[in-house]
Amino acid sequence: MDWQPQIKNRQGPLYAAICDAISEGVASGKLKPGQKLPPHRDLAFRLGVTIGTVAHAYAEATERGLVVGEVGRGTFVVDYGPQRPEMTQLVVEEGNSTGEIIDLGLNLSAIGDGEAMLRDSLTDIVNRASCGELLRYQPAGGMCNHRVAAADWLMRRGLDADPASIMICNGGQHAVFLSFMAVARHGETIVTELLTYPGAKAAAHQLGLNLVGVATDEEGIAPESLREICRTRRPKALYLMPVLQNPTTVTMSERRLVEIAEIAREFELLVIEDDVYGFLAHNHPKPIASFIPERTIYLTSASKSMAPGLRVGFMLVPDALVHVVQDLGCMTNWMTPPLLAEVASLWIRDGKADRLVSWHRKQAEERQNIAHRWLGAYARRASAPSYHLWLSLPEAWRMDSFARLALREGVRVITADAFAVKRDHAPHAVRLCLGAAFSLGQIEAATRKLLNLIENPPRPRMNLEAIE
After folding, report:
1. Higher confidence at residue 73 or residue 346?
2. CATH number assigned to the domain covering 128-350
3. Cβ contacts of residue 202 below 8 Å, gap of 6+?
4. Domain 14-77 fold
5. What radius of gyration, in Å, describes the C-alpha atoms of the chain?
6. At residue 453, what are phi and psi to the nearest 5 degrees?
7. Residue-wise pLDDT tens digits, 280-291
8. More confident: 9 or 43
9. Which of 123, 194, 204, 299 has the smallest count of CB within 10 Å of its CB?
10. What is the distance between the alpha carbons of residues 19 and 454, in angstroms, rounded to a whole number?
């Protein structure tokens, strides 16, 4: 291949210079998804470095999510392909409502009475004498009355929130991006679960951050694994989703959250707590932000708890980072559209948001029950109503072939490698988003098809090319 990293005049160790060149090649498009990198020995010869230096560079690039190594084949630029739902499949395809494709891949909450609520709220807003205020520039952190409403919303999750410490942002993804920018610089490390939200992977990749996966168990992040990473890697922050984690649906116990908080204190680790699904759990644990508020950025979003198109996020930020986050918000977004924030705030104040949450809980439970009726033998049962289902595939199946054949049957799912920090560590599993379907009937039809597929795996075929 023609690509060769340019490492002259770069600062730092040679391996880091090579890794940075790979990152720039991916960002510029000179390195294409799926493209094979030069073998270690060839690149070492061309650059006049040791094979160990190239190996170190490729290992670092793997940690950053830039490349993946395949034993016996080489090192390839990561190709997320169609399995990058939150980043590349945000546009709902025309014709989905006809039943041609039942989309259980797109990460959406179901839509309830939001349309009627929106009509009422917009009528109320335009009839006010002060509605012109919503057409003016506002502070980067959001209008004062919007931050007061957000504080009231967070209080329902057990957080004593000062409105001055709240940032109104443009949805949960914007909040993740701002958080990563605020806590780490290019080349620094953030820890997360081995399987994590793809939007966090994409944000880390775009910012040049090293995302390192920490081992998990049935209660979420394993404390000793986190402690070891803190000792050896000295990460800047921990990104986690303690309630109904995406994609596994695991909810961390309060005891486990206290352990994680103690480790964060011990190693002066900042925590980014993504609680976008906490509203679904009746008996949810206290947020980790309630234990270590001085070192936790807490975030949630109206897009999940109210309606997908209501792109309004709420961030509760430690005092030491408030101005940093506000400056970054101004730089990336200037301000969240005040009209959207006004709708979300009005729904919080007049009870519409609470009604939507109750509806979502009921809807998620009904969808979950239907899915488990057919797939319960293979799927993890979430501890609370959830719009996600984590489906472990039997040994005969591989996730790519399962997803491909499921789509042929008219059901779209997302494979585990979209969530894996290290793609080669992804289990053979798929995530179903039950909120994306248009009806309970679609959930039943889709899960019946998936069960039939699981129980009729492809027959093994002899690979004649592999026989010498």
Report:
1. 346
2. 3.40.640.10
3. 84, 86, 87
4. Arc Repressor Mutant, subunit A (1.10.10)
5. 23
6. -65, -45
7. 988 888 999 999
8. 43
9. 123
10. 40
